Amino acid sequence: MSLKIIVLAKQVPDTRNVGKDAMKEDGTINRAALPAIFNPEDLNALEQALRLKDAYPGTTVTLLTMGPGRAAEIIREGLYRGADDGYLLTDRAFAGADTLATSYALATAIKKIGDYDIIIGGRQAIDGDTAQVGPQVAEKLGLTQVTYAEEILNVDEKNRSITVKRHIDGGVETVEGPLPIVITVNGSAAPCRPRNAKLVMKYKRALGAQEKAPAPACHPEGVSALSYPELYEKRPYLNIQEWSVADVNGDLAQCGLSGSPTKVKAIQNIVFQAKESKTLTGSDKDVEDLIVELLANHTIG
Amino acid sequence: MANYYTDIPELKYHLNNPMMERICELKERNYRDKEEFDYAPQDYADAMDSFDKVLEITGEITGEIIAPNAEGVDEEGPHCANGRVEYASGTKQNLDAMVKAGLNGMTMPRRFGGLNFPITPYTMCAEIVAAADAGFGNIWSLQDCIETLYEFGNEDQHSRFIPRICAGETMSMDLTEPDAGSDLQSVMLKATFDEKENCWLLNGVKRFITNGDADLHLVLARSEEGTKDGRGLSMFIYDKRQGGVDVRRIENKLGIHGSPTCELVYKNAKAELCGDRKLGLIKYVMALMNGARLGIAAQSVGLSQAAYNEGLAYAKERKQFGKAIIEFPAVYDMLSIMKAKLDAGRALLYQTSRYVDIYKALEDIARERKLTLEERQEQKKYAKLADSFTPLAKGMNSEYANQNAYDCIQIHGGSGFMLEYACQRIYRDARITSIYEGTTQLQTVAAIRYVTNGSYLATIREFETIPCSPEMEPLKARLVEMANKFEACMNKVKEAQNQELLDFVARRLMEMAADCIMAHLLIQDATKAPGLFAKSAVVYLNYAEAEVEKHCSFINSFNADELTSYRQ
């Protein structure tokens, strides 16, 4: 049995280690100060997809991501680990999307891809923490969904069904659902495998159309010439496919800012300002007092 | 998140050595693989970029998987059940990650599934892995045994075995026996040819076999009945799928707990001959050991780096008498010399690996076509340099790893004696490096002929002609004086024409040569990258100068008659 799997992945600012300049004056994220990374739980999702590919030869894994031109990096990271190909949804009209517009765009692209058995993504992205996109994609496509997945236990070819272990409060449960299906994966699932040496060497020059375009002269680093331009004709897999709103037959009104009913009411810029440092000894009392204090101000609990 | 490659800029510096251009050109046969293999490099720049990216993968796996597992692996260790080895759970995870990342069979040709990497970037990976878990380093690095099978096995063996190693199966080299340690000529494991089965059968016992339950073994055995010396030994390939070799026990060791050291029992184990009969020890094991020695040198440098990192972090953090202890001269003295030995030893390691790369690549080309006269001369030159540098790299780096691990604990004070800190594991793990694959004393035996035949001195004199930066000039002038002292000592000992005296002071002469060579390499490095190496060049030269003076003083005032006071 071979499966067709689409992995939903997002490039996010690394919000796990934020410094004082992580936010701009207006309260939006200062993307320049934070490195752009593969959303961690999307990596867990990719691993589940790759395990299915290992188990069922002939299975294909396709990445789908939405973002600016540089988000092609997400596709490359997927290719380095064993994905077969990927699509980058990129268009100014997609910008400023909330979860509704994002899931609309993704669902539209998935319809364009057409042939799929499993759509899998991380539970949530670390920049928004909504956990809404996966479920909304399922609703828009009219598919069953399994959220908080920890492990795909089995795929039954005859009955076209899938068995998934999912994380619930205080334990796990095993559920079964029909294919095609949408699955969102929890961070407690297996970590993603490392990049593979041969695949990195094979795909390291894979670029999206925007990345391939020469940088304008005003760009601080100047014009960057494309190295080995002839390779892109000889090796089609080095061209990462980019899709605009028109390419996926999207309705402009439902995309990006215009398709996003979410309105930000206010942004509070909270800055932790530690006035003084505290020196603790290793004594039980100091440790205990610290725990009590952290519990009292809800830092832990 | 730690990346054991990108966090150490010295590694990239050594990767970018200009000799790499020639190495890549030879290894890639002018980049002929690019049409056939989608992961082959287009040109030199592309090859170097690929090495860099693969080292980054190794550094990431080491930082995120191997390093966090190291403490658990050290505690849990492998187990022996039903004649088989079960790795510690962390070891299994480490190996799985390395295999999935495609980091096995790195140096093998692409037609067998390898990456066709030169020895130098492979050795860097070995150093990186060992810095986090030296014991796991053994299991992973034993893949370089495949070099020997590639060099001496036939096409049929290549096609059956090499792809399996590239796919992640592990190897071992079964040499040592209870009565044949340093003296491998006394190996007794019996190989008899079975006419009915049309194969060789192995019977006997091997001891102290690292990763003894590996998938593929290279076995040294006595194929010539009635012989007693090295000329009766041949090399065999034992495939675990054939069965016949069981693990009797796993040794309980001071360090490198993750690496299973096995006692093996061979009962009619089917094996096949690798290469020609009778050349097992005198040719094939010598080649195998040279590769393994470079591997231990890399492991030692990794351990030195780990010791330095732990010592530095503790010294910055630990406060006594109202300030961080790193501010006390007694402490920064220790740290600076650790760093200098690390930088010097690493420079020697990669200089050696580059020599090995050039001569091995040419040797491999010679299997395809006749070498030109220039190529033959080049091959000979670098083979000799590699042979002379390998015992220095192994001998000096393993001693430095031990010294650095000792100082690392010293910096930690009482805490260093407690098992909670990583430094004690580094100390235990480092201890074996100056013993296995030939003790330092045996490295000296291998090195001394290059002292007496003037090879080291010639190399040192050649280094003296390489221009250096104005800042390094005064150091170089002192270094010339050091070389003069080495030359004088060497001549004095040679003139005495007393073999026992030569053997007795051999270690000192070898160290004098190594000190001069490493100081030169550091001066060259500090000329090219003063930000990385200028401090170490100064510190190391001060240290090496005093070392040379010490040995010189000893040899000058030593009277051969005094040997009677030493004999026990």
Automatic annotation (TrEMBL), chain A:
Gene3D superfamilies xrefs: HUPs
Alphabetical keyword list: Electron transport, Transport
Location of the Electron transfer flavoprotein alpha/beta-subunit N-terminal domain: 26-211
UniProt xrefs under SMART domains: ETF
Statement: the UniProt record of this protein carries the keyword Membrane: no
Signal peptide (residue range): none
CDD domains, sorted: ETF_beta
Alphabetical list of PROSITE patterns matching this protein: ETF_BETA
Domain of life: Bacteria
Keyword Transport: yes
Family: Belongs to the ETF beta-subunit/FixA family.
Protein name: Protein FixA
Source species: Parabacteroides hominis
TrEMBL record, chain B:
Gene3D superfamilies: Acyl-CoA dehydrogenase, C-terminal domain, Acyl-CoA dehydrogenase/oxidase, N-terminal domain, Butyryl-CoA Dehydrogenase, subunit A, domain 2, Butyryl-CoA Dehydrogenase, subunit A, domain 3
Keywords from the UniProt entry: FAD, Flavoprotein, Oxidoreductase
InterPro entries, per database record: Acyl-CoA_dehydrogenase_C (IPR020964), Acyl-CoA_dehydrogenase_C_sf (IPR036797), Acyl-CoA_DH_CS (IPR006089), Acyl-CoA_Oxase/DH_mid-dom (IPR006091), Acyl-CoA_Oxase/DH_mid-dom_sf (IPR046373), AcylCo_DH-like_C (IPR036250), AcylCo_DH/oxidase_C (IPR009075), AcylCoA_DH/ox_N (IPR013786)
Keyword Iron: no
Pfam families named among the record's database cross-references: Acyl-CoA_dh_1, Acyl-CoA_dh_M, Acyl-CoA_dh_N, AcylCoA_dehyd_C
Acyl-CoA dehydrogenase/oxidase N-terminal domain location: 92-169
Entry superkingdom: Bacteria
Cofactor(s) needed for function: FAD
Occurrences of domain Acyl-CoA oxidase/dehydrogenase middle (ranges): 173-268
Ranges where the Acyl-CoA dehydrogenase C-terminal domain occurs: 452-563
Sequence similarity: Belongs to the acyl-CoA dehydrogenase family.
Protein name, as recorded: Acyl-CoA dehydrogenase family protein
Naturally occurring in which organism (per UniProt): Parabacteroides hominis
